[in-house]
Amino acid sequence: MSRLLPLSSCMCSVSSRLLWSGSPCSSPLLTPSSAGLLCVWTAGKKDLIDLPALNEDELEEQFVRGSGPGGQATNKTSNCVVLKHIPTGIVVKCHQTRSVDINRKRARDIMREKLDVQYKGELSEVLVKKKESELRKQEKRRKANDNLERKRLFKEALAADSKPRNDAV
């Protein structure tokens, strides 16, 4: 228990993500990446993903009116978040909910994923997980087709066995 006390004393806040104070080297959740950015290990997810941390100085945020279905609620409120990463020029537009705060959080999550793809390319966590998911889906589809083929062959064998034979001896 005494080992946990120093760690809990440097914790700033706890939510779905953990933020640590101090230098990046002192925290197990913050690691420097090859691009010179800090990477934050997120907690509370199924898999810990190594995404770059966002520097708020490099972001330009706007609130605009959203588009799509919703009528007057969409047309009169500016709850769509447009987030631009100035160094790379990546723009993210998020209008998933009616809440500005939730849209801001989701826009930042999407921006972190896009920056991960931008900096790491094919080795990014997002693309690797997507490829793994596609491979699992293909394997599942192949197994289902194999099972259907096995059932079809079994039914054919049963039908062939149940037919009366005209063997005259």
What does this structure look like?
The chain has 169 residues and is α+β, with helices and mostly antiparallel strands. It has four helices and eight strands, in the order αββββββαββαα. It has a three-stranded antiparallel sheet with strand order 3-4-5. The protein is elongated and about 90 Å long. The termini are far apart.
Secondary-structure blueprint of this entry?
Blueprint: H1 4-9, E1 11-14, E2 18-20, E3 30-32, E4 38-41, E5 50-52, E6 59-64, H2 72-76, E7 80-85, E8 90-94, H3 100-120, H4 125-162
Antiparallel strand pairs: 1-2, 3-4, 4-5, 6-7, 7-8
Brief characterization of the structure:
This protein has helices spanning about 5-10, 70-75, 100-120, 125-160; strands spanning about 10-15, 20, 30, 40, 50, 60-65, 80-85, 90-95. By secondary structure, it is an alpha+beta fold.
Strand and helix order: HEEEEEEHEEHH
Strand content: 15-25%
* Helix vs. strand class: alpha+beta
How are the strands of the biggest sheet laid out side by side? 3-4-5
Query: How would the global form be characterised?
Result: elongated
Number of helices, counting only DSSP H or I runs of 4 residues or more? 4
How many strands appear in the DSSP assignment? 8
The residue fraction in helices comes out at 40-55%
- Largest sheet report: 3 strands, antiparallel
Taking all Cα atoms into account, the compactness measure Rg is 27 Å
Taking the alpha carbons of the first and last residues, their distance comes to 87 Å
- Unreliable stretches (pLDDT < 50, length at least 5) are 1-30, 40-45
**Average pLDDT reading:** 76
